[in-house]
Amino acid sequence: MDKKPKKKKFEVQPGETISDCLDRMAGEGYFPVRRMEEPVFKEVKKNGKMVQEYHEQRIVFEGKLQ
């Protein structure tokens, strides 16, 4: 029997709903204990300068083994 880690991070994938991610967590035997939202930036060249621009929001859940 494989020993699972006590905590694991689950990222909401593109095209996946939060509910789908939570179902995937439950299927692996984890329940959510923390939700983190991280902004993702891209570097874009504007007027000859490199500028960081907001691109998307990444949602990550921390799961604890049941």
TrEMBL record:
Q: Show the InterPro entries listed in the entry.
A: NETI
Lineage, top ranks: Bacteria, Bacillati, Bacillota, Bacilli, Bacillales
**Pfam families assigned to the protein according to its UniProt record, in alphabetical order:** NETI
- Which domain of life does the protein's organism represent? Bacteria
What name does UniProt use for this protein? NETI protein
Species this protein is from: Fictibacillus solisalsi
